[in-house]
């Protein structure tokens, strides 16, 4: 067993990130830093049993892990979503959980717009057909003129509203639904200035030709886009998801695409990443699929790592981290 007088900070998996800036910040603040390079819970428990700060990449943080780390004070994430951490167990054990709020709002909204446009303009089909022998092929349906259609947004938080700002000039109307957003005069004025009309879920579902999801994954929102929901959307509409894969039942989505009820989907996220080889969204020319990359840019690559490490440092220096998502006792 390692003995150390310095607090220990442990990175779990760092598959597609360079933690160098975080390591530098943590070491300068007096931490001993370890990089395990694994998502396996037994290996994480073995390598981080004495951790004060846990810095996951994509690894799930379970109750068992939290209970096996008696000195743990913070799980500092490098994502906006925190659905892969047992928040209840963390809070119960006095462990802070932090995320990186707003760090990639511009990137995620831009990516949503990019794949939204790729799907509505049927780029999957036309990129595949732009060859000498299929040059004149046409997709089964002609795309709509966007200025004659309605964009629907579910979740009018930071990313949802940024997408409204970017996409508003392209669409005839923008409607949005968010049951948690307070109905204050400031928010009403903000939504009005952006040009989004706030309404109920039924109207958004019934009227949006292009529907984009910008809400967190919770037990209540898991599979909210199921067969019944898809059947209520306008025929030939397009679904966009850059939030979390499990918001959608992808088997129901495949069936809706096959029947023509939906004309296309644009997705950056799936319920399991990477997906199994037989995942129903793979290899379809009516699905624009990117590998959970919406947040990524030269700026966020650095900012995510910096904010993640800084949360651990700020907690030790002040007793409260910068961007908590829970309030442990
Ligand atoms: N693909 C990526 O790379 C990537 C990167 C960052 C964030 N995300 C995802 O984007 C989501 C949104 O991020 P954000 O920064 O806008 O968060 P945010 O907290 O600013 O906004 C989320 C909004 O969803 C609303 N909401 C909650 N439950 C709802 C429900 N049942 N129906 C409708 N709205 C509901 C909240 O009131 C809030 O306004 C995150 O939860 C995260 O999962 C993805």
TrEMBL record:
<dbReference type="InterPro" id="IPR029753">
    <property type="entry name" value="D-isomer_DH_CS"/>
</dbReference>
<dbReference type="InterPro" id="IPR036291">
    <property type="entry name" value="NAD(P)-bd_dom_sf"/>
</dbReference>
<comment type="similarity">
    <text>Belongs to the D-isomer specific 2-hydroxyacid dehydrogenase family.</text>
</comment>
<dbReference type="Pfam" id="PF02826">
    <property type="entry name" value="2-Hacid_dh_C"/>
</dbReference>
<protein>
    <submittedName>
        <fullName>C-terminal binding protein</fullName>
    </submittedName>
</protein>
<keyword id="KW-0520">NAD</keyword>
<feature type="domain" description="D-isomer specific 2-hydroxyacid dehydrogenase NAD-binding">
    <location>
        <begin position="113"/>
        <end position="294"/>
    </location>
</feature>
<dbReference type="Pfam" id="PF00389">
    <property type="entry name" value="2-Hacid_dh"/>
</dbReference>
<feature type="domain" description="D-isomer specific 2-hydroxyacid dehydrogenase catalytic">
    <location>
        <begin position="19"/>
        <end position="326"/>
    </location>
</feature>
<dbReference type="InterPro" id="IPR043322">
    <property type="entry name" value="CtBP"/>
</dbReference>
<dbReference type="InterPro" id="IPR050418">
    <property type="entry name" value="D-iso_2-hydroxyacid_DH_PdxB"/>
</dbReference>
<dbReference type="InterPro" id="IPR006140">
    <property type="entry name" value="D-isomer_DH_NAD-bd"/>
</dbReference>
<keyword id="KW-0560">Oxidoreductase</keyword>
<dbReference type="InterPro" id="IPR029752">
    <property type="entry name" value="D-isomer_DH_CS1"/>
</dbReference>
<dbReference type="InterPro" id="IPR006139">
    <property type="entry name" value="D-isomer_2_OHA_DH_cat_dom"/>
</dbReference>
């Amino acid at each position: 067993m390692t003995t150390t007088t310095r607090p220990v900070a442990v990175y779990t998996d760092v598959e597609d990130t360079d933690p160098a800036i975080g390591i530098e910040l943590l070491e300068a603040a007096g931490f001993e830093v370890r990089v395990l390079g694994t998502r396996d819970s037994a290996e994480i428990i073995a390598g981080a049993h004495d951790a004060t700060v846990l810095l996951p990449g994509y690894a799930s943080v379970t109750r068992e892990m939290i209970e096996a780390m008696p000195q743990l004070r913070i799980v500092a994430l490098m994502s906006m979503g925190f659905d892969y951490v047992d928040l209840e167990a963390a809070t119960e054990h006095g462990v802070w959980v932090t995320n990186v709020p707003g760090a990639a709002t511009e990137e995620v909204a831009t990516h949503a717009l990019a794949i939204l446009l790729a799907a509505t303009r049927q780029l999957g089909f036309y990129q595949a057909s732009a060859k000498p022998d299929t040059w004149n092929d046409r997709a089964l349906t002609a795309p709509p003129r966007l200025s004659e259609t309605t964009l629907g947004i579910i979740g009018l938080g930071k990313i949802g509203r940024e997408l409204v700002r970017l996409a508003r000039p392209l669409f005839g109307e923008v409607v949005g639904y968010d049951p948690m957003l307070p109905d204050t005069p400031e928010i009403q004025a903000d939504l009005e200035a952006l040009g989004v009309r706030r309404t109920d879920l039924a109207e958004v579902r019934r009227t949006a030709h292009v529907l984009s999801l910008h809400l967190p994954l919770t037990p209540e929102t898991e599979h909210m886009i199921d067969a019944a929901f898809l059947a209520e959307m306008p025929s030939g509409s397009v679904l966009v998801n850059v939030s979390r894969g499990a918001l959608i039942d992808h088997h129901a989505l495949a069936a809706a695409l096959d029947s023509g009820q939906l004309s296309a989907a644009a997705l950056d996220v799936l319920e399991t990443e990477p997906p199994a080889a037989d995942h129903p969204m793979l290899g379809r020319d009516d699905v624009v699929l990117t590998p959970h990359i919406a947040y990524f840019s030269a700026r966020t690559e650095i900012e995510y790592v910096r904010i993640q490490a800084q949360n651990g440092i700020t907690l030790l220096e002040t007793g409260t981290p910068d961007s908590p998502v829970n309030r442990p006792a």
